[in-house]
């Protein structure tokens, strides 16, 4: 009778273009996740959840790489240990999108509910995690090397966990469908809040949200295709290749947005910002700019703001560029438009013309007011006023 060690030794090792692509995806994923987590401010929940998503994807890619190449025989005790992570993918992707669109916090218990299915699944598989190596060998070889003989398992071995385990792929499909629909609904409700991206901003919030929605739909389609054509894990490498592509595209997109690749970095635009108040925060800038006496004036400038806050204008410019999707003018116009919206709906200003309200909040001309208003709200002031008077 062949011993378990001999059976494990028979597992072949294979390396080809698919395995190299999976390894590259896992490696880039780990580096990318750590980089985002380290560089992301603590208040940016959207990118924090996105980095956790990339980390989970990297771990799943690594697991599939080990299974596909046969290297799993050296780490057989960990076979299928990453399955609960698959149920975290859709919630993490949704939470990243949700905090990007709505920056309001969520109670801890609500966030915990999103992670509950993955936790319950992991708990249901405790029996499998404690099984002897022979059981894990049989599970692994059955999915990837069906031609190899089965190993003998101890008498009395129970497979109570198997019922839930067989539902894993359908739970994953259900999760992606549910959170995909939830994300599309969220985007549809708040789509009018997206303005056009500022000049030279390639990864705007609007484009990132569309990328997430496209990833949801495409992933769901690939999952359906693989699950309908493969009864076991033998088709997981196709899913993994697509996931690797998502990670690589994300990494390239983030790097292409980096100021290292912009001309402003080469001419030392921001190097002069080291002088002055180096502890200045974006919240400090918001607090000052939010004063009507500043943003409603017809000539607010970075120079005046820098003098008021005791720092170099480039420091403020950098804070605004890094903390928002726009530049200084977009930042100031945001306060102007919000006040204009308030005045358009106020009885105090009901006899004012739209142009007059625009001038009252700091715009020099009707065209600049209309352009800024449409950029922020997606409609002209007249159309907005009409929608408020005659809601659909």
How is this fold's topology laid out?
Elements lengths: L3 H6 L7 H23 L5 H25 L13 H19 L6 H17 L1 H4 L3 H12 L17 H4 L2 H23 L14 H25 L6 H22 L5 H4 L15 H8 L2 H4 L6 H8 L3 H11 L4 H17 L9 H7 L5 H12 L3 H9 L3
Helix pairs in contact: 2-3, 2-11, 3-4, 3-11, 4-5, 4-9, 4-10, 9-10, 10-11, 15-16, 17-18, 17-19
Task: Walk me through this protein's architecture.
With 392 residues, the chain is mostly helical. 66% of the residues lie in helices and 0% in strands. It contains 20 helices and no strands. It has helices spanning 4-9, 17-39, 45-69, 83-101, 108-124, 126-129, 133-144, 162-165, 168-190, 205-229, 236-257, 263-266, 282-289, 292-295, 302-309, 313-323, 328-344, 354-360, 366-377, 381-389. Helix 10 (205-229) packs antiparallel against helix 11 (236-257), helix 15 packs across helix 16 (313-323) and helix 17 crosses helix 18 (354-360). It is elongated and about 90 Å long.
Attribute tags:
elongated; mainly alpha; 392 residues
Brief rundown of the structure:
The chain is 66% helix and 0% strand. By secondary structure, it is mostly helical.
